[in-house]
Amino acid sequence: MRITISGTIGSGKTTVCRLLSEALGWPTAISGHLFREMAKELGMSLEEFGRLAEQDPKYDRLIDDRLLQRARQEEDVILEGRLAGQLLRRNAIPALCVYLDAPLEVRAKRVSGREGVGLREAMDEMSAREASEALRYRRFYDIDVADRSIYDMVIDTGALTPEQVVERIIARVRGG
Asked: What share of the chain is helix, strand, coil (3-state, %, to 5)?
């Protein structure tokens, strides 16, 4: 079974993906790592690279192609990315599609701690990235990232530990 983990910035996607991978023994494909690697290769900040990606869809398509290739090659794989669920649905690749979210303050605190920046700076960067992504996804894919109707599970991670989130997903995987 393929599992996609999508959601907002700071909702716990990568952490949940890692823990889920450990629990199930499945490999992962994490789009955020690919995006960060591309920005670094070009000597750009995430915000600068986001603006570049707004102008040229090839950067998002490169990430998409890698995720889809993994999904086609491996049946038991966890694919993490803002559009992972949408991509698999559009390409008729069966998957359990999970969406993670949390209140803005919780997400900003997580990002602040992870990135080693102040809370205000984290909120500003998140807002800029989310606006950039919403614009790109609408323009290049005709996807409204606020539409959660394609997801099998929508989990608010605000008051949950990552382990509790993983337990819920595993219960769904095992038919519970």
From this structure: 60, 15, 30
In this structure, what token pair is assigned to residue 166?
């993983």
Count of structural domains within the chain: 1
Helical pair 46-55 and 58-73, crossing angle rounded to 10 deg: 90
Distance CA 79, CA 102 (A): 20
Which tens digit of pLDDT belongs to each residue from 124-173? 989 888 888 888 889 888 999 888 999 999 999 999 999 999 999 999 99
The amino acid at residue 153 is: M
Q: Specify the DSSP class assigned to residue 152.
A: S
Residue 160 belongs to domain spanning: 2-173
In one-letter notation, the amino acid at residue 83 is L
CATH of the domain at 118: 3.40.50.300
DSSP 95: -
User: How much is the pTM?
Assistant: 0.86
Largest CA distance in the chain: 46
Q: Which of 162, 152, 13 is nearest to 85 (CA)?
A: 152
Q: State how far the alpha carbon of 59 is from the alpha carbons of 49, 78, 94, 99, 107, in Å.
A: 9, 21, 25, 23, 26
Taken as a whole, the chain contains a residue count of 176
